[in-house]
């Protein structure tokens, strides 16, 4: 994290940076972790002109959070209860609790437009095998984001009609945007050399995410255009074709252990569970 801050300071010398380290995967300390983040971004902590207007929920993981560290993929039966809790904490619970803590700051009157950007996954639409907990948590993010976007829109309409919201918070223009991503190169899952037509670089995807702000979408929308093509395929193709493609793609990924960067076959292949 310190290296990242140093790199950012070199690229943006006029900007100020502040960070809080928190573990999104634990259950017993989640409340204190969320509170520590929220308390660090108050007006008092940020100083003059430091109003918070953007929340990007990009924490997540599905293949690198297992406690034994041996399998990039596994069957649902094999998944320990503790790892299921960790997956849902990282991909759903932490994001939900942090949004609940930060949203009142974004809603504060006089700050102008604000943004909640939630980063989703094509896996939630394809539902490939061997990662059902991950895909289920990402599907939750899609529905949560859509519902919250509709809620903020309705609250703005009530405010315009001079019908105050009983919750006690003034509702400014808060956009809730859920962006669907596919595979991205130069990340912890794929090397930069993996860049291809359907696997853009992290920089290209980041620019595409920013470009989607203000698009007006309430439901999940693809950030990068080639991921949009994949999303269209998943939405308009018969289920049996999507299922076949997902199963074949997952078998190939398991055989090469592509997500953790190893060339050897995954343990699940060695055990003969996937042909």
Features:
275 residues; alpha/beta
N- and C-termini, Cα separation: 41 Å
**SS-based structural class?**
alpha/beta
Low-confidence stretches: 258-275
Side-by-side strand order of the widest sheet? 1-2-3-4
Radius of gyration: 20 Å
Strand content: 5-15%
Tell me the major beta sheet. 4 strands, parallel
DSSP, total strands = 4
Count up the helices.
Answer: 10
Mean pLDDT: 83
Which range best describes the helical content: under 10%, 10-25%, 25-40%, 40-55%, 55-70% or over 70%? 40-55%
- Along the chain, the helix and strand elements come as HHHEHEHHEHEHHH
Query: Outline, from the CA principal axes?
Result: globular
How is this structure best described in words?
The protein is α/β, with parallel strands linked by helices and 275 residues long. The chain has helices at residues 2-11, 30-40, 43-46, 81-106, 123-126, 132-160, 202-212, 225-236, 239-256, 267-270; strands spanning 54-57, 114-121, 174-181, 221-222. Strand 3 (174-181), helix 7 and strand 4 (221-222) form a beta-alpha-beta unit. The longest helix is centred in the middle third of the chain and has 29 residues, at 132-160. The protein is globular and about 55 Å long.
């Amino acid at each position: 994290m310190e290296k990242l801050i140093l790199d950012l300071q070199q690229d943006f010398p006029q900007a100020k940076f502040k960070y809080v380290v928190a573990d999104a995967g634990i259950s017993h300390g989640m409340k204190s972790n969320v509170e520590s983040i929220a308390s660090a971004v108050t007006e008092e902590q940020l100083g003059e002109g430091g109003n918070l207007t953007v929340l990007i929920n990009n924490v997540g993981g599905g293949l690198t959070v297992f406690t034994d560290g041996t399998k990039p993929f596994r069957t649902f039966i094999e998944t320990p209860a503790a790892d299921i809790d960790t997956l849902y904490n990282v991909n759903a619970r932490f994001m939900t609790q942090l949004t609940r803590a930060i949203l009142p700051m974004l809603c504060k009157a006089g700050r102008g437009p604000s943004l909640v950007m939630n980063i989703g996954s094509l896996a939630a639409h394809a539902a490939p095998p061997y990662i059902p907990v991950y895909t289920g948590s990402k599907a939750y993010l899609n529905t949560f984001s859509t519902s919250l976007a509709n809620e903020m829109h309705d609250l703005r309409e009530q405010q315009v009609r001079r019908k105050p919201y009983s919750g006690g918070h003034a509702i400014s223009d808060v956009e809730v945007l859920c962006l669907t991503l596919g595979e991205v190169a130069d990340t912890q899952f794929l090397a930069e050399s993996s860049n291809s037509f359907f696997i853009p670089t992290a920089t290209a995807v980041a620019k595409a995410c920013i470009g989607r702000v203000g698009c007006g979408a309430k439901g999940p929308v693809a950030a990068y255009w080639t991921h949009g093509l994949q999303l269209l395929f998943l939405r308009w193709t018969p289920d049996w074709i999507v299922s076949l493609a997902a199963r074949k793609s997952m078998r190939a990924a398991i055989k090469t252990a592509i997500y953790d960067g190893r060339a050897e076959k995954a343990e699940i292949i060695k055990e003969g569970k996937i042909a």
